[in-house]
């Protein structure tokens, strides 16, 4: 086995590490949320100004937060509700829309769940906490 001079080893290890990071990063891009879902969503467009505002260019919940609001904010990598945050673990697509696996937490609990979205238009989605159509709720995208 050929020995490399000491100054060559870090370069080779750096390249191997770089390829490993690139491979892991590329694999994650396949599981990204549909960009059309990014933004604030409420049960009615009239609620947008009531629940959301822009703070330093970022979409946030208007203070004081209505913890019972039917509203959420989808961002790359997470979904924020009035009561907690869910990290997006994986995203799958099928004929029924998008299934999103989440790790969620609030001030007292942690749970994993899968929710479903079906895009009707750029301004309307169906949300289901289980994938059962009888539990679908329509949400409107907020244009803030």
Describe this structure in words.
The chain is an alpha+beta fold and 144 residues long. Helix content is 17%, strand content 44%. It is globular and about 35 Å long. Residues 4-30 have low confidence and may be disordered. A hairpin with an 8-residue loop joins strand 9 (124-128) and strand 10 (137-141). The chain has helices at 9-29, 48-51; strands at residues 39-42, 52-55, 58-61, 71-75, 78-80, 84-94, 97-106, 110-121, 124-128, 137-141. The protein is built from 2 helices and 10 strands, in the order H-E-H-E-E-E-E-E-E-E-E-E. It folds into 2 domains: 1-30; 33-141, Beta Barrel (Lipocalin). It has an 8-stranded antiparallel β-barrel.
Provide a quick synopsis of the model.
The chain is of the alpha+beta class. It contains two helices and ten strands; from the N terminus they run αβαβββββββββ. The chain has two domains: 1-30; 33-141, Beta Barrel (Lipocalin).
Give keywords.
single chain, 144 residues, alpha+beta, Lipocalin, eight-stranded antiparallel beta barrel, 2 helices, 10 strands, globular
